[in-house]
Amino acid sequence: MTQKIVVAGSGFAGMWAAIAAARAVSLAGKQNEVEITIVSPAPQLHIRPRLYETVFEEMAPDIAPLLEAVGVRHLAGTVEAIHARSHEVEVLGTGGERTTLPYDRFVLATGSRLFLPNVPGLKEHAFNVDQLSSAIALDAHLKALASKPETAARNTVVVAGGGFTGIETVTEMPQRLRAIFGQDAKIRVVVVEQAPVIGPDLGPVPRPVIEEALAECGVEVRTSTGAAAIDAAGVTLSTGERIETQTVVWTAGARANPLAAQIEGEHDRFGRVHADPYLRAKSAKDIFVTGDVALAATDGEGNVASMSCQHAMVLGRVAGHNAAAELVGLPVHPYSQPKYVTCLDLGPWGAIFTEGWDRQVRLTRHQGKAVKREINTKWIYPPQADRDAAFALANPAHVIVA
């Protein structure tokens, strides 16, 4: 009887989980005994870390040839319900049909979504760069502004959220606006952060560099305040300050995909499922969690994986391998990712590259930018549709010690 592995999501974690599972099955010589299915709306890897940029042609590479090369079936649809007790998931197909898929092992890799709190006017008037369609909509909006009468509101952009995505978005915005309105246009770009400092989660070490870059890019910073209300003509901050603008970009936080809530057991404040060292959901038999839906320890020092492609790629490889290994009799591997780096794009200023959880600055400006360019255009992209090469990259023993 054929055993079945179902992977929900084809993002960084889902894609690598499927490849790693196929590798384990191949190593055991049981390709005819285990079927691997990945469920997502389309066989694409959306490059979310790059959606603050302006060129979208390469932001959703087709992974269908890769999946075919490694022996993974793609099902076009979305997992809507998880029935852990009966070992089944419900899938809504892209054509509207509903399917029930049985599984022996299930890997939840559906990622995260932008958190939208109950701020008046947020859903009606704000833009974001969370998904490819959203980034394209923002770009179309900005370009359409050029045909409108020049006003301060037209030429002003407010980015709500001064975390990683907010900083990358806002430092890119001045040159983006000048490309649309002209190099001599009088523009205003503001970033708003509720915490007392910009980039609160990035820590104190890189902050002076980030502040220098923001100032050099011409970005105004508002801290200890947030967006209290948004309308078509502007945003009102919690301090009472009113900024007239036709463009508010929301980047304030993410939450695990709602499917994670269907898995029994503990969840953290972001909705992530507590995972054991092998990325099994602690309270759900035969379910693995990975990527942004997993709360997993990266080391023995108390650090946990962040919601980033850096961690999702390794989490996916380990979860996929372990899901298959349990079925085909191979050893499982614990998840471990003690090396941690960050590379933050800071627009025309350059970029900052740090190492360690205390984020010691190693590279800045053009040197940091060169590394960021490598990451964004090469390192995070899917491998070629070459079975052996993909399997080599999916080896969990290799990625754990990297």
Automatic annotation (TrEMBL):
<dbReference type="InterPro" id="IPR036188">
    <property type="entry name" value="FAD/NAD-bd_sf"/>
</dbReference>
<dbReference type="InterPro" id="IPR051169">
    <property type="entry name" value="NADH-Q_oxidoreductase"/>
</dbReference>
<dbReference type="InterPro" id="IPR023753">
    <property type="entry name" value="FAD/NAD-binding_dom"/>
</dbReference>
<comment type="similarity">
    <text>Belongs to the NADH dehydrogenase family.</text>
</comment>
<feature type="domain" description="FAD/NAD(P)-binding">
    <location>
        <begin position="4"/>
        <end position="312"/>
    </location>
</feature>
<protein>
    <submittedName>
        <fullName>FAD-dependent oxidoreductase</fullName>
    </submittedName>
</protein>
<keyword id="KW-0285">Flavoprotein</keyword>
<keyword id="KW-0560">Oxidoreductase</keyword>
<keyword id="KW-0274">FAD</keyword>
<dbReference type="Pfam" id="PF07992">
    <property type="entry name" value="Pyr_redox_2"/>
</dbReference>
